[in-house]
Structure formats: structure tokens, C-alpha cells
Automatic annotation (TrEMBL):
Its main location: cytoplasm. The keyword Transport does not apply. InterPro entries: CTAG/Pcc1. This is Pcc1-domain-containing protein. Pfam families: Pcc1. GO terms for biological process: tRNA processing; tRNA threonylcarbamoyladenosine metabolic process. It is found in: Cytoplasm; Nucleus.
């Protein structure tokens, strides 16, 4: 992945690409599904694309200014941290069957 590029006087949009490794491809896909739900607050100013390649989450940002790029990336990384903390606190099990049952009687 290349480095971030800054906006220029000619109006070139600011861009950033991130590569976030996950322990497994399945966890990377779960993170993508969780993070894709949270859309940009100003889609006319910032575009974000999330893809998965193996165990890596690839995120591309394109924004009209460095300032909006910084705000968007900061908010996204906060969401990534929350997602990873939840994955760590509640690890997936191989048995998807719930361990408790609810009785309606």
C-alpha cells in the first residue's frame, strides 16, 4: 500500500489506503460486514471502500480535503478498535448453537 497523498493547490483529492491484518479470513469478513454498515456522515465529501483479501481488510479513503480525510479516518479507526475489542471479548465458537434455551411455558 502506498502512503497517504495530500491535497494540492490544483484540487487533487486527499487519499489514504489502509491494510489491517486479522487473525483469520473469517474475522476479516466479519469486520467488513460490521464496518460497512456505518456509512460516511458526508458522502459527498468522503468516499470509503472496504474490501477483504485473505485475512486482511483493505480500506481506501478519498476526501475533498485533508481535514475531512483526517476526521473520517479517525472515526473509522475508532469503529475498528471497537469491533476488534468485541471480537476479542466474545470469541467465535465452532458450535453456533446457543448454550441456553428460552422457555415460553
Amino acid at each position: 500500500m502506498g502512503p497517504a497523498t495530500a491535497a494540492t493547490a490544483g484540487g487533487t483529492p486527499s487519499q489514504l489506503r489502509l491494510r489491517l491484518p486479522f487473525p483469520t479470513p473469517a474475522l476479516a469478513r466479519v469486520a467488513q460486514q460490521v464496518l460497512d454498515v456505518d456509512h460516511e456522515l458526508k458522502p459527498s465529501e468522503t468516499k470509503r471502500t472496504i474490501t477483504v483479501d485473505g485475512g486482511c481488510l483493505h480500506v481506501a479513503f478519498q476526501s475533498i480535503t485533508d481535514r475531512t480525510l483526517r476526521a473520517s479516518v479517525g472515526a473509522f479507526l475508532d469503529a475498528v478498535l471497537l469491533c476488534m475489542n468485541v471480537m476479542e471479548a466474545f470469541p467465535a465458537t465452532s458450535d453456533p448453537t446457543p448454550s441456553a434455551t428460552i422457555s415460553t411455558a
